[in-house]
C-alpha cells in the first residue's frame, strides 16, 4: 500500500563571517554548514532508519485482515488507510503510522467536515446534525498536522464515526494524546482503531443516510521499533468511560476476539504472538525521562 512521506523541515541558511582574504576560513564555513544540514537530515529520518525497521516490509504493519463478515472498501489516503463499510456508512477500521517527527506539525486544524464524493455510502454532515453524537475522528487531526493534505483528509467522513461526547472529548481524547507521547518515546507507533457492533443487538441509526451508531470502540497500538517490540489494546463503551482509559486496557488478542479483525500479521509469528498477548498499562503509559 502507498506509504506516506514524513514532512521534512528545511535547514535555514547558516550565519558565518566570510573574510575576503581567508580562503581556508571560507571553506571551513561551507563544511560546517554541510555538517549542520546532514545532522538535521539524520534527525528527521532517524525513525525510519531505526535498526528494528527491517523487521517487516515498509508499510505492511498497517495491513489488517478484516472480519470476513463485514463489507469493505479499502481507501488509501496519504496519511491513513481506511477500510470503509457502505452498510454502516463509516470505517470498519482506520490504520496509520505516527512518527516522532509527525507529532509536532505546523498545519492548523481544519474547521469543517466533508463527504468524500468518491466513496459510495459515505455519510453527509447533515446526518450528524442534531443527532446527539459527535463526529468522532478515528485517525485524529492531532496526528495529521504534518501535511495540509493529511489534515484535510482526516476530516473526511470516511474517517468519522458517531461518538458520544463524553467519550470523544473524554477518555478517547486522552488516549489519542497518550499515543502521541508514545510515538515520541518509541520513534514511531502503528495505530488501528474503529467501531464495534455487537451481533444480535439492535443498531441505532442517525440521519437520512442511516449511519449506524457503534456500541463500543477499539484501538490497538504497536511500538515495532523498540527492543523488544510491544503492543496494547483498548475497548471503550460509546459513552462515559468510568475509571478512565486504564480500566479499559486489554491485549490485542482480546480486541481481535471481539472484532474478528487480525492485526499486525506482517510481524514474525513469534513476535506477533508475544506482543498481542501483552497488556501492561502502567508500563505502556509511563514515559521515559528526557
Taking all Cα atoms into account, the compactness measure Rg is 21 Å
Average pLDDT metric: 85
**Strand line-up across the major sheet:** 2-3-4-7-10-11-12
Class based on secondary structure composition and strand pairing: alpha+beta
Q: Could you give the distance between the termini?
A: 35 Å
Report the top-level CATH class.
Answer: Alpha Beta
Query: What would CATH call the homologous superfamily?
Result: Extracellular Endonuclease, subunit A
Q: Low-confidence runs (pLDDT<50, min 5 residues)?
A: 1-21, 36-57
Number of strands: 13
What percentage of amino acids are in beta strands? 15-25%
Helix content: 25-40%
Dominant shape: globular
The count of helical stretches stands at 7
Order of helix and strand elements from N to C terminus: HEEEEHEHEHEEEEEEHEHH
CATH architecture: 3-Layer(aba) Sandwich
Query: How many domain units?
Result: 1
Largest sheet entry: 7 strands, antiparallel
CATH topology: Extracellular Endonuclease, Chain A
Give a description of the structure.
The protein has 290 residues and is an alpha+beta fold. The chain has one domain (51-285): Extracellular Endonuclease, subunit A (Extracellular Endonuclease, Chain A, 3-Layer(aba) Sandwich). It is 27% helix and 21% strand. The protein has a seven-stranded antiparallel beta sheet, sandwiched between helices. A two-stranded antiparallel ribbon has the order 1-13.
Amino acid at each position: 500500500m502507498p506509504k506516506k512521506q514524513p514532512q521534512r523541515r528545511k535547514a535555514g541558511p547558516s550565519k558565518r563571517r566570510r573574510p575576503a582574504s581567508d580562503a581556508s576560513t571560507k571553506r571551513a564555513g561551507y563544511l560546517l554548514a554541510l555538517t549542520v544540514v546532514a545532522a538535521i537530515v539524520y534527525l528527521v529520518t532517524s525513525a525510519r532508519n531505526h535498526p528494528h525497521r527491517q523487521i517487516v516490509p515498509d508499510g505492511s504493519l498497517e495491513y489488517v485482515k478484516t472480519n470476513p463478515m463485514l463489507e469493505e472498501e479499502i481507501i488509501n489516503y496519504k496519511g491513513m488507510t481506511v477500510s470503509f463499510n457502505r452498510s454502516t456508512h463509516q470505517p470498519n477500521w482506520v490504520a496509520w503510522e505516527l512518527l516522532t517527527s509527525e507529532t509536532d506539525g505546523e498545519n492548523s486544524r481544519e474547521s469543517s467536515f466533508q463527504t468524500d464524493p468518491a466513496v459510495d455510502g459515505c455519510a453527509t454532515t447533515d446526518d450528524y446534525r442534531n443527532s446527539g453524537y459527535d463526529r468522532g475522528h478515528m485517525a485524529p487531526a492531532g496526528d495529521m498536522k504534518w501535511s495540509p493534505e493529511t489534515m484535510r483528509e482526516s476530516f473526511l467522513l470516511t474517517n468519522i464515526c458517531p461518538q458520544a461526547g463524553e467519550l470523544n472529548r473524554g477518555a478517547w481524547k486522552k488516549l489519542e494524546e497518550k499515543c502521541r507521547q508514545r510515538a515520541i518515546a518509541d520513534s514511531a507507533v502503528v495505530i488501528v482503531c474503529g467501531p464495534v457492533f455487537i451481533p444480535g443487538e439492535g443498531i441505532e441509526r442517525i440521519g437520512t443516510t442511516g449511519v449506524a451508531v457503534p456500541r463500543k470502540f477499539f484501538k490497538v497500538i504497536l511500538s515495532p521499533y523498540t527492543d523488544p517490540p510491544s503492543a496494547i489494546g483498548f475497548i471503550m463503551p460509546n459513552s462515559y468511560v468510568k475509571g478512565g482509559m486504564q480500566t479499559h486496557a486489554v491485549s490485542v488478542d482480546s480486541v481481535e476476539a471481539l472484532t474478528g479483525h487480525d492485526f499486525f500479521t506482517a510481524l514474525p509469528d513469534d513476535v506477533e504472538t508475544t506482543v498481542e498477548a501483552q497488556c501492561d498499562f502502567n508500563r505502556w503509559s509511563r514515559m521515559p525521562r528526557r
